């Protein structure tokens, strides 16, 4: 393999385009996979490459023929199986950047900001140098500051590289996904080791972690929730949509679920308990208790302001449900729903009550998943109301909830396979 003589710094690799032998771009470098070895220098074994569909795959460095500024050239076709770090592997950017080490001379604490790798004989790449920033000790309560001198040190001049800080670099990873959707961060967590994904989860705020959990498969949801202290787990469950929280708690042992419900705020716990009372494959088990609910006298302008909220899922933002007071579920008598398209056609000052769609029949809580999906397809609609025997609105079912239950449990992996096939073509 033809290799460059100069060392390569990992931070400069991030975002670099990867080309196949004929010059076609196949993806971009997102991280470098390091094999940490006690008693020996760490070695870089591969690159994490993001291919079309935001799928991240593994490219062995033995398949890399050239690394030069602005491009990485590889041999052959990429293996498009989703990358997931093994227990012995460490992601340089996600796990080593910002890790604290000690510079032997002077016993100075420093934080890793970059890592240099160099090609060695036999096609391997060794970690040889670290770019670190010394920590300045402040007399104030700030403790260590990371605004000290930046230096390049040889690997054998530091200690502590093998030691994992509990939250080292977590904020760096979180910040890199600040502008991404929760599903993107969820996919990244699935690639990391269980220990690292738990560290990232611990550093996320409750709202963001709740959004990420909603995008994970059930097994990963339960695993991450199990790494949190009970009080924190209850806070995150409160931040989740009630139907998603109910689905997650329904997969836990009854005693554990009941203990978490007891730690939640009574109002939030009551909504989740209401959903847990229904079978999973019924309208009651599928619905959320937090659709957009208004009284008949509410103006069109006020309704448009409600559906404009960023945190509202698109399916639930497509309509408002009109009821008699009270407006909290279970509400007063359900009057009907109004589509957002109708709202856009009416005068802002008009009351919403006279614009309900009489053609949409509400579901009952006991209706089956098959009936829900049939009705949703027949009406060509994104969400449907669920009422009780007294015509009180209990909640609403959105199309994404239906699809989650119709698709197999491992549908995300099937989706990855489809993305891989598309990328390969």
Describe the structure.
With 425 residues, this protein is α+β, with helices and mostly antiparallel strands. It has four domains: 79 residues, Roll (SH3 type barrels); 66 residues; 98 residues, MgtE N-terminal domain-like (MgtE N-terminal fold, Alpha Horseshoe); 114 residues, CBS-domain. Helix content is 34%, strand content 25%. The strands form four sheets. Strands 1, 2, 3, 4, 5, 6, 7, 8, 9, 10, 11, 14 and 15 form a 13-stranded mixed sheet that branches. β10 and β11 form a beta hairpin. α6 crosses α8 and α8 packs across α10. The protein is elongated, with a radius of gyration of 26 Å. It starts with 7 loop residues before the first strand and ends with a helix. One of its GO terms (cellular component) is membrane. GO terms for molecular function: magnesium ion transmembrane transporter activity. InterPro entries: CBS_dom (IPR000644), CBS_dom_sf (IPR046342), Mg_transptr_MgtE_intracell_dom (IPR006668), MgtE_N_sf (IPR038076), MgtE_transporter (IPR006669), PRC_barrel-like_sf (IPR011033), SH3_actinomycetes (IPR058838).
């Amino acid at each position: 393999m033809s290799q460059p003589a100069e060392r390569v710094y990992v931070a400069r690799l991030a975002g670099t385009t990867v080309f196949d032998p004929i010059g076609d771009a196949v993806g971009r470098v997102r991280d470098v996979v390091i094999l940490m070895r006690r008693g020996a220098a760490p070695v870089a074994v591969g690159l994490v490459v993001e291919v079309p569909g935001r799928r991240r795959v593994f490219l062995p460095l033995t398949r890399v023929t050239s690394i030069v500024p602005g491009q990485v050239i590889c041999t052959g076709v990429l293996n498009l199986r989703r990358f997931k770090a093994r227990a012995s592997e460490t992601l340089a950017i996600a796990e080593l950047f910002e890790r604290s080490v000690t510079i032997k001379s002077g016993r100075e604490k420093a934080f890793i900001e970059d890592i240099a790798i160099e090609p060695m004989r036999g096609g391997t790449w060794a970690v040889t140098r670290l770019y670190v920033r010394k920590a300045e000790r402040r007399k104030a309560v700030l403790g260590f500051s990371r605004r000290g001198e930046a230096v390049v040190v040889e690997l054998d001049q530091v200690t502590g590289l093998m030691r994992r800080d509990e939250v080292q670099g977590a904020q760096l990873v979180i910040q890199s996904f600040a502008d991404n959707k929760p599903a993107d961060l969820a996919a990244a967590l699935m690639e990391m080791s269980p220990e690292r994904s738990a560290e990232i989860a611990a550093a996320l705020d409750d709202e963001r972690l709740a959004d990420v959990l909603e995008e994970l498969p059930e097994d990963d949801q339960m695993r991450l929730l199990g790494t949190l202290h009970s009080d924190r787990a209850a806070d995150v469950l409160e931040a989740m949509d009630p139907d998603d929280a109910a689905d997650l708690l329904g997969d836990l042992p009854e005693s554990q679920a009941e203990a978490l419900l007891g730690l939640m705020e009574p109002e939030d716990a009551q909504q989740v308990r209401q959903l847990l009372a229904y079978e999973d494959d019924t309208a009651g088990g599928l619905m959320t208790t937090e659709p957009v609910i208004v009284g008949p006298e509410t103006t069109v302008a006020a309704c448009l302001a409600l559906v404009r909220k960023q945190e509202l899922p698109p399916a639930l933002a497509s309509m408002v449900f009109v009821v008699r007071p009270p407006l909290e579920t279970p509400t007063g008598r359900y009057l009907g729903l109004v589509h957002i398209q109708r709202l856009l056609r009416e005068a802002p000052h008009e009351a919403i009550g006279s614009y309900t769609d009489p053609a949409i029949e509400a579901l009952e809580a006991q209706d089956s998943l098959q009936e829900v999906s049939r009705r949703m397809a027949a009406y060509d609609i994104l969400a449907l109301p669920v009422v009780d025997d007294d015509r009180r609105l209990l909640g609403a079912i959105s199309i994404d909830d239906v699809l989650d239950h119709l698709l197999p449990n491992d549908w995300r992996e099937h989706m990855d396979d489809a993305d891989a096939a598309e990328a390969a073509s």
